[in-house]
């Protein structure tokens, strides 16, 4: 379980000195489920993902993941924790264009030791239908690049998967493939949280959380 308690994130603001961009009293994300986070631009969706992964520092509050209060971790421990516990998938993929798909998938191995052994990158390529004959990812289509990004996010078999608009720049077929893959991961017991405006995503999620002005304004549970 990922639990957020009494979260407040403030940023410097020229007009008011400080401005709250995320305020959450109590919010939990259960394992084995896909949760979609929706809301207008600037409502705090990416900030919420970054709070869970420990990238954005809190002004106050705590994030507890499987019994560990990760907001108490020192930076180096949090980095190591993130590497082995959180898989991140981004709208713009964050791949290195000059590297091959295989090297992109293996990239997290070079960031330091992880507690869990890395999965076989070639098996991940097969599972996600990544073409094996491309020398660099810059020569791949967006749909193919997103498959590489998903495979990379799963390299250390993370218990949490965070995806920021992972279908936004994809056509319907590739978008559905991404949603299917994330639902498959949730079915294995992972906590999957995806920011998305895509109605297909929300329709297939166990829960959709709506944010506005940094606050949860609605929570829809699938019937
Ligand atoms: N480091 C920061 N410093 C100042 N303001 C920030 C910072 N990070 C985010 N913000 C502001 O916080 C608000 C929420 O940003 P966030 O990126 O979480 O929104 P979002 O819902 O993901 O938006 P979008 O859908 O446009 O990506 C925005 O007004 C943004 O400008």
UniProtKB/TrEMBL annotation:
Cellular component terms per the entry's GO annotation: plasma membrane
SMART domains, per database record: AAA
Cell wall biogenesis/degradation among keywords: no
GO MF annotation terms: ATP binding; ATP hydrolysis activity; transmembrane transporter activity
Alphabetic keyword roster: ATP-binding, Nucleotide-binding, Plasmid, Transport
Cited Pfam families: ABC_tran
InterPro entries attached to this UniProt entry: AAA+_ATPase, ABC_transporter-like_ATP-bd, ABC_transpr_LolD-like, MacB-like_ATP-bd, P-loop_NTPase
Protein name per the record: ABC transporter
Organism encoding this protein: Sinorhizobium americanum
